[in-house]
Amino acid sequence: MANLKKKILNKAGLTLLEIVIAVGILAVTLSGTMMILVRISNQGSSIEARSLAVQYAQEAMDAVKNYRDNNYCTFFSMNGNYSVSKVGDNWTMNASAAWVDVFTAGSSEQLGTNMRRSIQVSNIPGQIAQRVVITMRWQIKNSFQQDYVASTEMYKWKY
């Protein structure tokens, strides 16, 4: 028993250098883990915002088709930038600035985005048709600006 007590008392503890190295390794490991978690979080926000942009673009495309069906004669003479708004069961299209903010009940505010929509309608030369290009633009927090573009050609199918 006395021999065991001597061994315990003679055993040296960790040196200051060993402690500093251990803390350094722990700090590097934890900072790497934190960076990975932040990137995963930002990627989730980016995917959610892109999904929202696709939904807004689809809504605008449906609104343009609704306007075409209900205002057939005037639709094929349109040219320029437009915004859409719903009046009753029908959509209306009004000439507007190139970019219009898109607001919904808390969705874009929760993501910290500035969601904007551009609807461009132009004549297709040599055809009785319109090209519709809908561009969604947003930026999440301090990230880079992102765009989603949907386009279609609408031909005159009624006479």
How does this model look, in words?
The chain has about 160 residues and is of the alpha+beta class. The chain has one domain. Helices cover about 45% and strands about 30% of the residues. The protein contains 4 helices and 6 strands. The protein has helices at about 1-10, 15-70, 70-75, 105-110; strands at about 80-85, 90-95, 100, 115-125, 130-140, 145-155. Strands 1, 2, 3, 4, 5 and 6 form a 6-stranded antiparallel sheet that branches. Strand 5 (about 130-140) and strand 6 (about 145-155) form a beta hairpin. The radius of gyration is 30 Å and the shape is rod-shaped. The model is unreliable at about 105-110 (pLDDT under 50).
- Sum up the overall morphology in one term: rod-shaped
What fraction, in percent, of the residue positions are helical? 40-55%
Broad structural category: alpha+beta
Number of domains: 1
Main sheet attributes: strand count, strand direction, barrel closure: 6 strands, antiparallel
The Rg value, from CA coordinates, equals 30 Å
The helix-strand sequence is HHHEEEHEEE
Distance between the termini: 108 Å
Poorly predicted runs: 105-111
> What does the average pLDDT come to?
80
Provide a count of the helices.
4
**How many strands in all?**
6
Beta content: 25-35%
